User: Fold this.
Amino acid sequence: MKEEVKEYIGQNKDRFVNELLDLLRIPSVSADPQYKNDVARAAEYVKGQLIAAGAEHVEVCKTDGHPIVYGDKLIDPKLPTVLVYGHYDVQPADPIDLWTSPPFEPVIKDEKIFARGSCDDKGQMYMHVKAFEFMMKNNSLPCNVKFMIEGEEEVGSVNLGIFVKANKEKLKSDVCLISDTSMLANDIPSITVGLRGLAYVEVELVGPNRDLHSGTYGGAVSNPINALCDMISSLIDPVTRKITIPGFYDDVEDISAEEKKAISEIPFDEVEYKRELGIKETRGEKGYSIIEQASTRPTLDVNGIKGGYIGEGAKTVLPSKASAKISMRLVPNQKSEKIAHLFAEHFKKITPPSMTVKVDFHHGGEPVVVPMDCIEYQAASMAYEDTFGKKPLPVRAGGSIPIVALFENELGVKSMMMGFGLDTDNIHSPNENFGIFNFLKGIETLPLFYKHYADLKKK
Amino acid sequence: MKEEVKEYIGQNKDRFVNELLDLLRIPSVSADPQYKNDVARAAEYVKGQLIAAGAEHVEVCKTDGHPIVYGDKLIDPKLPTVLVYGHYDVQPADPIDLWTSPPFEPVIKDEKIFARGSCDDKGQMYMHVKAFEFMMKNNSLPCNVKFMIEGEEEVGSVNLGIFVKANKEKLKSDVCLISDTSMLANDIPSITVGLRGLAYVEVELVGPNRDLHSGTYGGAVSNPINALCDMISSLIDPVTRKITIPGFYDDVEDISAEEKKAISEIPFDEVEYKRELGIKETRGEKGYSIIEQASTRPTLDVNGIKGGYIGEGAKTVLPSKASAKISMRLVPNQKSEKIAHLFAEHFKKITPPSMTVKVDFHHGGEPVVVPMDCIEYQAASMAYEDTFGKKPLPVRAGGSIPIVALFENELGVKSMMMGFGLDTDNIHSPNENFGIFNFLKGIETLPLFYKHYADLKKK
Assistant:
């Protein structure tokens, strides 16, 4: 199959690119109601391309928001089924004046396609459609395929959650395949094997029953802002930089020696990392490398803080209250709800007797890890090795993709995150781009995943 | 003189009250441009009343803002001169719906005058005009008097500062007399002998050069909000509650055993204090009483803090910066500028190497103390003893009145703060009121200050 896919791409690459450019010309900005019709147009375009590639049962499924495009090719119920997830909606293009070419008029420069959505996720999603087309044309589709391409990824995938829960039988599958992450470099393929989870809380500390004059009461009445700073400061040990909430690390799974070794092999330029962020030093948990700190270890960050007078000039208020938004990134096996409760319990305990505290929970998300010893990972790894000539590195992303936990919980399937974009593709920023090399390499690699996966499943 | 003033008040009290009510009917709200003409009307009214009482050289002096009313009675250059300071402008009346009677339609209920400005400061200022009238009518004015009644006290007295600096000769005097504070109770007269100073800074802590995704960078890149909390928390010792800035206490003058004893005699109900504030405990510097903590000891309070996302809901940002407004109340002999610099130096020193900090200085104010062994204090004390039948207690206020330091620095005079209002008069709040007892007691007491002051100066 290796040679056939290369040949097919060689014959069809201009058409592949042009089809993608047509999709990129549709401003399917899901967050902005004025693009509602464009979002619908993009769904119709995806529907047409799935049909043209050979998919069946293709439909644009209505939701309370933007539609989900479904299509499948079920060749044999005894064969494994791959569920392809992607999204056809894009981020808003603002700030528009920082684009060097209009965001919805794609141009090719330096072998890269510049347009909003070129990488995230129209380009990466479309690789799957073309890989499928190849397997259909080549009569080499080795398993069943189901496509679920949504239009609300950039606004939280709320209706996808409802759709998945309502269509478990229809979406039944053995593995979910997603290209919505990046790889390390064009010559360093990688597979995203872990995502951190999230516990997000909001705290409000209340002292006196009203704002006081800091002259009249200052010195005797404890100030909620000062007290909140004390409490927040105490949550991280100043020396080890470990989180001090009792029980916080109880369920944390240390990464394997094998993964630690793999991480150490990831090319990483600390000097450039700091230069690019404009910082003199990084500062994380003792005993871990920067990559480990930012992806394999749990964190506690204040995402917002507010209290007292924050306008121009000076006001001598001793405020009644102060509040903060605090999130903790979680790693396997931590549970979002448990950590939120541990936080709340501890935070109440350290509240000074002169104050009261309220802790509210925002949304959470569970950490995800793809075991490297499963056949799905092996199949992906073999596919990359076939097309890049080297084994991909397993990497963990520090962020959270809630849909991955959704698929695991609701459909019982692991997600293989085979991203072909680069961190320099400016996703969510002006001048988003996607290398033609990357686009075509994705189309070349994905059929090989299907092949190896089906072969390994047979054994 | 004791009997004559009583008799004069007995004969004229209804007129005194009615004249004050006329002044209170003028909505001289200095902060609100729509009352500009009313503020000017109030100045004219004060001018007329000063002339009627016997003052000379009375003029409404223009400034870049609201005018200052000046008038004097210079009887003999060899005699001491008293400078009377007061203000005819008032705070805005909002929230208007919480008033039980319209703020500028004064009514008398339970022997109290209810109206905006009844106590602060129209009522207290007008006591001086009527005390002066008595001394003129009674041919008993024992020294020269100068009146300086401004119209911008509630908006910061900026133009008063310019006026004072430009008219040092005209305002030359031996003591300044101010009734713009309160006394402890109608049967516990008190003199305000100290005011705290103020050093006010604004700090901004900057980490990475842009807002980051807390998933991608959290754990490795230090968060400016967390770091700001650490830094602020470290400024106060958790056990002694002393401020940890090196040199901060170097110039602090401990209060005398005599004043400590006087403070301990001030009636103070700690249970009621906490109940009224809605707090279970106070929390201040170890080894000092609540009154001492709130008036004789320096403080450090965060007046405002801001960082990251503070809107509704959750956002997982690791912000580029965080900022805070921090003020320190100062006590004699601390210097505002020196303390601000000590703060800045220390705050820069404790900034983590991964961040940079900027410290800006807002306005400051010097602490003030009136020595109890000066003849001004003795004269005031004797006056209260004459009219209340008991010695007044010396008290310090925790706040700052910058004009007092202004008079000391620019005119070289100490201010005697003889307030006749009560803390329950709701100044700056709805239903401001001033007891008729207090109004008349002020008129009765003030001439006795002049008498004792002139007598003591002769010796």
Notes: Chain A is about 35% helix and 20% strand. Residues 197-252+298-365 of chain A form a domain with the Alpha-Beta Plaits fold (CATH 3.30.70.360). Chain A touches chain B through 80 residues (CB under 8 Å).
